[in-house]
Each structure stands twice: as structure tokens, then as C-alpha cells.
Design a protein that fits this description.
There is one protein chain. By secondary structure, the chain is an alpha/beta fold. It has 2 domains: 9-272, TIM Barrel (Alpha-Beta Barrel); 281-348, Antifreeze-like/N-acetylneuraminic acid synthase C-terminal domain (Type Iii Antifreeze Protein Isoform Hplc 12). The chain contains 12 helices and 14 strands. The strands form 4 sheets. It has an 8-stranded parallel β-sheet with strand order 5-4-3-10-9-8-7-6. The protein has a two-stranded antiparallel sheet with strand order 1-2. It has a two-stranded antiparallel ribbon with strand order 11-12. Strand 1 (4-7) and strand 2 (10-13) form a beta hairpin. Helix 9 packs parallel to helix 10 (256-272).
């Protein structure tokens, strides 16, 4: 298993900060300026990468109006796939300017490719990794073509069975590409928290021996945080300037203030995930306020220790409370004033 994978100047892995991808996708609403503005906003929010999609309506589907190509969805219905993708696609002549801005801002440019022509196009842009969308996971020839570039592959697994994921991973590995990242994903838009099954993250990590992330289509921020707690090392989330915008993906996307808070929360969670049980300096300092055995009533030399004259109280200057039973019934070696911490020298062990 590759413990970490390098994408441009970042590493993805269990010992690394969670790699956050702000997916702009169709949320540019056919405006280059909005695409550039969202890229700047993603950087301000703390995202590591922005992601677009590289296809045209004609490379991803056919302009045919029959029952096979009609969309049935509350938000996307009453149109064909070709109609939907005509509204959603990113014009390819934008990408050079978007990539240039990403380089200037030091945020990684990514884009999902949907056929060989888009892979070639992205290779000409010198992308640092390739992304496979959930719906393309079963396109093994496409995955093989991407894998041959020797760039890291990020594969979303929405709708996929474990055997289908296995086929995709094996396809990449058969051509010598071991730089594979799988994203747990539920391909509903928006997805509901009770559909997440985030426990599969650890199972996927063990089964496929590669880093596992989470492509999150929920509205709630807590699902992403929960995924990180379950071991996700990548988070992908759709990003929009406002959900009020009329773009194909806006209704399930994350706004800038939400994204900033989400990334901040993830960074806090990362700080909590250590496995070292050694005490912090503040913990060490606080130990003085633990309980210990103190004399609570003046004791004369030779007097027996009892529940009436010694107690477990704060602070911790006396003997540990675990010695209580062996001390009760013993005799004092000296006069001890109330408020004194109990010491071994006070105890006559020859009784």
C-alpha cells in the first residue's frame, strides 16, 4: 500500500492534512468571470484544489430526444441529457486561463475527464492528477487510458459495488499505476446523511490498500467532519457563490462561508486525532489538583489511621488514594496536624 501520494506540491495520506477539493463544476453558470471568482474564493476558504469537468455535450452523450436520454430528477427533469450538459459544461477555451490563475494563487487545478480527448486536453495543460467521476467508474478503457499517463488517479465510487471498484483499481494497476485514491460517494443530489454508510471507508482502505476520501453531496457540514473522523484523507465538495444562483449544481453546493467553516472544522478535527497518550505540559501542571490522602483531623503519635482522620481530597501532595486500604488501621509514627499531606514516613508498618 502506498501510504501517501503526491499531487503537485501536496501529499495525500493518513499522516497528512486532509486534501480539500472545492468542486466548481457547473457552478460557473457559463460565466468565465464567475469561474475565476470561485477559484479565488476557494483559495480564501483554504481549499487545496479546485475541480472542474472537461467534456462537451457531444463527447458525453448524444443529442437524441427519446426515452433513453430524458432526465428524471426534481431539479434536472423535463430535458434531455444533452440539454443538461449544454448548460453545465465548461468551455474548453477557458481552461488555460483558469489553470494560469490556479498556478498564480498556488491552488491545485483538477478536472474530471470523460473521454480520451478530454484526457489528452488536460495532459496538454499539465494537470497533476486525473479524476474519474462516479458515473464513469465502469468505463475501464477510459481508466486504463488515464492510468497510462502515470498521473495520480482519483476515482469516485458512487453507485459502484465492491467488485466494480476492484475492477477499476485492477485496471489502473495492470498498467503500472499505483497512485490511486478512492472517494466514498453517494450519487444522489443532494444526498441524505442516513445514506452515507461512512463505516465503509475503513473497509475500502483495507480491501484496496490505498488512500480513501469522501466526495460529499450532502448539504450538512457534519457529514464531511464525520468522514474525516472515519479516516477520509480527501474531501471533495461542490462549491458555489450562492445556492440562489440558477446553475445545475447550485442547489446542493456549499457557499463560501460554509466552506471556510467546514475546512476550519476539519483542521480542528485533525488536531484531535493523535494516538499519543503522553501528557501535555498543561496536563502535567494540572496534576496538582488530583486527589490524594490528607490528614483531616489532628493525629497523635501512635494513633490509628481511620476514616475519621484521613480522607481522599484535592490537591495531590499526599499519598495516592489507591493506598487507602493498606493505611487504614496502621499507627502514626508522629503527631500530624490537620491539613497535612499523608506520607509513608507517617506510617508505622511494623504494626
Amino acid at each position: 500500500m502506498k501510504s501517501r501520494i503526491k499531487i503537485e506540491n501536496k501529499y495525500v495520506g493518513a499522516e497528512e492534512p486532509v486534501f480539500v477539493i472545492a468542486e466548481i463544476s457547473a457552478n460557473h453558470g457559463q460565466s468565465l468571470e464567475r469561474a475565476l471568482s470561485l477559484t479565488r474564493e476557494a483559495k480564501k476558504c483554504g481549499a487545496d484544489a479546485v475541480k472542474f469537468q472537461t467534456y462537451t455535450p457531444d463527447t458525453i452523450t448524444l443529442d437524441v430526444r427519446n426515452k433513453y436520454f430524458e432526465v428524471e430528477h426534481p431539479e434536472w427533469g423535463n430535458q434531455t441529457l444533452h440539454d443538461l450538459y449544454q448548460k453545465a459544461f465548461t468551455p474548453w477555451d477557458w481552461f488555460k486561463e483558469i489553470k494560469s490563475l490556479c498556478d498564480e494563487l498556488d491552488i491545485i487545478f483538477l478536472s474530471s475527464a470523460f473521454d480520451k480527448t478530454s484526457v489528452d486536453f488536460l495532459e496538454d495543460l499539465n494537470v497533476s492528477a486525473h479524476k474519474v467521476a462516479s458515473f464513469e467508474l465502469v468505463d475501464l478503457p477510459l481508466i486504463e487510458y488515464m492510468a497510462k499517463t502515470k498521473k495520480p488517479l482519483i476515482l469516485s465510487t458512487g453507485m459502484a459495488s465492491m467488485s466494480e471498484i476492484s475492477d477499476a483499481v485492477a485496471t489502473a494497476r495492470e498498467v503500472g499505476n499505483e497512485d490511486i485514491i478512492l472517494l466514498k460517494c453517494v450519487s444522489n443530489y443532494p444526498a441524505k446523511p442516513d445514506q452515507m454508510n461512512l463505516g465503509i471507508i475503513s473497509i475500502m482502505k483495507k480491501e484496496f490498500q490505498c488512500p480513501i476520501g469522501f466526495s460529499d453531496h450532502t448539504i450538512e457540514p457534519v457529514t464531511a467532519v464525520a468522514a474525516v473522523c472515519k479516516g477520509a484523507v480527501v474531501l471533495e465538495r461542490h462549491f458555489v457563490s450562492s445556492r440562489k444562483l440558477d446553475t445545475p449544481d447550485s442547489f446542493f453546493s456549499t457557499e463560501p462561508k460554509e466552506m471556510k467553516r467546514l475546512i476550519d472544522d476539519i483542521r480542528i478535527v485533525e488536531q484531535t486525532m493523535g494516538t499519543d497518550n503522553s501528557l501535555t505540559p498543561k496536563d502535567e501542571k494540572s496534576k496538582i489538583f488530583r486527589r490524594s490522602l490528607f490528614v483531616v483531623k489532628d493525629i497523635k503519635k501512635g494513633e490509628m489511621f481511620s476514616e475519621e482522620n484521613i480522607r481522599s481530597i484535592r490537591p495531590s501532595n499526599g499519598l495516592a488514594p489507591k493506598h487507602w486500604k493498606e493505611i487504614i488501621g496502621q499507627k502514626s509514627t508522629a503527631d500530624i496536624k490537620r491539613g497535612s499531606p499523608l506520607e509513608w514516613s507517617h506510617i508505622n508498618k511494623e504494626n
